[in-house]
């Protein structure tokens, strides 16, 4: 009976009124009023970690082709040119560490010493409460991680669209001249648009929904980004583009707002 009710409610949620906004700040203010903290909502952070914890206890497969395929391509490309060295990786917007935990099944425990998950302060704080997350390196301070570690791969999957200033962040990363920059599942458009994204709590995170959390709506501010502007940040500053691929299924909720693409940049050795 609960599952029938859930299906009816999910269909009803599709008709939720979502106002149009002029910019990212306006979208963020609206979402803050709907669920305080937005990405750092205590409910959302706890829910995602508990959901994944339960999934891991059942020894379920963490393979998610939407998120992991391009990261595997990056690692393979790096290893081809650096046979005796495993890459140091930043997973920007890496959620609860699903990508890194999956890589453990291929590369073993060494992956944990060579990877960092950059997330919101709320997500980083919540990670300290879960045993499986103790072997992962969570941080909200990308500046320190980049300065203290010789990072080889900067990877971000469907994350930069949720930043207020995505170009500033990418320009900052570019200055470190990392060997590989991989931006996957991007939401591009010729004319930048800001919008409000809404989902049910159950649609967030990896694993089976916990009924005890209920199923409230989660509101996010998001925006499309300009493909040329992103490319210029790297191509005009010592990088070349080695993968420029349109993708059919990016997991982007509202495809009407833009078009999805994967980009992989390689630094030009001097």
Produce the secondary structure layout.
Blueprint: H1 2-13, H2 24-34, H3 42-57, H4 65-81, E1 89-92, H5 98-107, H6 110-113, E2 115-118, H7 121-127, E3 138-139, H8 142-148, E4 153-157, H9 166-174, E5 180-188, E6 194-200, E7 217-223, H10 227-235, E8 239-246, E9 259-267
Parallel strand pairs: 1-2, 1-4, 2-3, 4-5
Antiparallel strand pairs: 5-9, 6-7, 8-9
Describe what you observe in this structure.
By secondary structure, the protein is α/β, with parallel strands linked by helices. It has a single domain (19-267), classed as Vaccinia Virus protein VP39 (Rossmann fold). 38% of the residues lie in helices and 20% in strands. It is built from ten helices and nine strands. A seven-stranded mixed β-sheet has the order 3-2-1-4-5-9-8, with helices on both faces. Helix 3 packs across helix 7 (121-127) and helix 9 packs parallel to helix 10. The longest helix has 17 residues, at 65-81. The protein starts with a helix and ends with a strand. The model has no long low-confidence stretch (mean pLDDT 89).
Residue share in helices?
25-40%
Instruction: Output the helix-strand order.
Output: HHHHEHHEHEHEHEEEHEE
Q: Give a short account of the largest sheet.
A: 7 strands, mixed
Q: Biggest sheet, strands in spatial order?
A: 3-2-1-4-5-9-8
Number of helices in the DSSP assignment: 10
CATH architecture: 3-Layer(aba) Sandwich
Tell me the fraction of residues in β-strands, as a range.
Answer: 15-25%
**Average pLDDT, all residues:** 89
From the N-terminal CA to the C-terminal CA, the straight-line distance is 65 Å
| CATH hierarchy class name | Alpha Beta
Using DSSP, what is the number of strands? 9
> What's the overall geometry?
globular
Report the structural category: alpha/beta
CATH topology assignment: Rossmann fold
Q: Domains counted in the coordinates: how many?
A: 1
Quaternary structure state of the chains depicted: single chain
Q: Radius of gyration, Cα only, in angstroms?
A: 19 Å
Instruction: Spell out the CATH superfamily.
Output: Vaccinia Virus protein VP39
Q: Low-confidence parts lasting 5 or more residues at pLDDT below 50?
A: none
């Amino acid at each position: 009976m609960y599952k029938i009710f859930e299906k009816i409610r999910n269909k009803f949620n599709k008709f939720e009124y979502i106002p149009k906004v002029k910019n990212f700040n306006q979208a963020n203010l609206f979402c803050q009023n709907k669920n305080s903290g937005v990405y750092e909502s205590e409910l959302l952070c706890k829910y995602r970690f508990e959901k994944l914890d339960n999934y891991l206890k059942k020894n379920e497969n963490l393979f998610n082709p939407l998120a992991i395929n391009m990261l595997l391509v990056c690692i393979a490309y790096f290893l081809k040119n650096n046979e005796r060295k495993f890459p140091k990786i930043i997973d920007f917007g890496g959620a609860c560490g699903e990508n890194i935990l999956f890589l453990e099944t291929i590369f073993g425990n060494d992956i944990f010493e060579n990877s960092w998950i950059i997330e919101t302060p709320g997500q980083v704080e919540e990670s300290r409460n879960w045993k499986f997350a103790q072997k992962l390196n969570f941080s909200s301070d990308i500046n320190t991680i980049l300065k203290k570690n010789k990072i080889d791969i900067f990877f971000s999957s469907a994350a930069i669209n949720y930043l207020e200033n995505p170009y500033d962040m990418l320009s900052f990363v570019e200055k470190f001249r990392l060997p590989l920059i991989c931006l996957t599942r991007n939401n591009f458009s010729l004319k930048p648009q800001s919008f409000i994204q809404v989902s049910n709590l159950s649609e967030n995170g990896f694993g089976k929904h916990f009924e005890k959390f209920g199923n409230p709506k989660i509101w996010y501010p998001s925006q499309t980004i300009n493909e040329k502007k992103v490319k210029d940040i790297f191509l005009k500053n010592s990088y070349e583009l080695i993968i420029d691929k349109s993708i059919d299924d990016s997991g982007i909720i509202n495809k009407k707002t833009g078009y999805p693409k994967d980009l992989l940049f390689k630094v030009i050795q001097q």
